[in-house]
Design goal:
By secondary structure, the chain is mainly beta. It is built from 1 helix and 12 strands, in the order ββββββββββββα. The radius of gyration is 15 Å and the shape is globular.
C-alpha cells in the first residue's frame, strides 16, 4: 500500500472489494490502493483498517454514548477515541494530543474532519445508498498531517456503522 502523503491529487474513492465479505479499499485516481478496511463481523461493529502507517482496529461501542476506540494492532495500544453525539457528529481525541471534530454536513451522507483550528482535513461522502462506495476529498494542506490516514479510515468506518445503525432502527 502506498502512503497517502505520496498521493498527488486530492480526490480518492472508497470501493467495496467484495460482495460476500465486506472489504473496502481507498483508491486514488492513479489506480493505487492507499488504505483498506476489512470488516470482522459487521453485526459486532469490528473492523481492521490498514494503510502504510500500520494496522488499526475499530470497534463500535456504546448505545447512548457511542464511541469508537482506535487500537494500533502492532502494540495493542489505544491511540485515540472518537466520541459521537446524538446527531452523528463528535470529537476524535488522539493520544498524541491532537483533536479533530467529526462533523455531519448533510442528510445525503457527507461528513468532514476539522482540526482544532477549524481547518478542514478531509470530507467523506457516500456515492449511493444502494451500493457501498464513496468519495474522499483531501484538503489542500492535509497531506502533511500524519493523522490523515487514520481520519480517512475511521471516518469511513463510522459512516458505515451509523448507516447500518439507522437501517436497523428503521427496520
Amino acid at each position: 500500500m502506498k502512503p497517502i502523503q505520496d498521493f498527488e491529487d486530492n480526490e480518492m474513492r472508497w470501493f467495496s472489494a467484495g460482495l460476500v465479505r465486506w472489504n473496502d479499499e481507498l483508491l486514488g485516481t492513479d489506480g493505487e490502493t492507499y488504505a483498506a478496511l476489512v470488516w470482522k463481523g459487521v453485526l459486532m461493529g469490528k473492523a481492521i483498517g490498514s494503510c502504510a502507517k500500520g494496522d488499526f482496529q475499530f470497534k463500535w461501542a456504546g448505545f447512548v454514548r457511542r464511541h469508537v476506540p482506535i487500537v494500533e494492532m502492532s502494540s495493542g495500544n489505544e491511540i485515540g477515541v472518537l466520541r459521537l453525539g446524538i446527531f452523528d457528529s463528535g470529537w476524535l481525541q488522539m493520544e498524541n494530543g491532537r483533536r479533530y471534530q467529526f462533523k455531519h454536513l448533510s442528510l445525503r451522507g457527507r461528513w468532514s474532519f476539522f482540526d482544532e483550528l477549524g481547518e478542514k482535513q478531509c470530507t467523506l461522502a457516500f456515492r449511493s445508498w444502494v451500493r457501498r462506495g464513496g468519495d474522499a476529498i483531501i484538503a489542500v494542506n492535509a497531506t502533511l498531517n500524519p493523522d490523515l490516514p487514520i481520519l480517512l479510515l475511521l471516518g469511513w468506518y463510522a459512516m458505515n456503522m451509523m448507516n447500518a445503525e439507522a437501517i436497523a432502527y428503521v427496520s
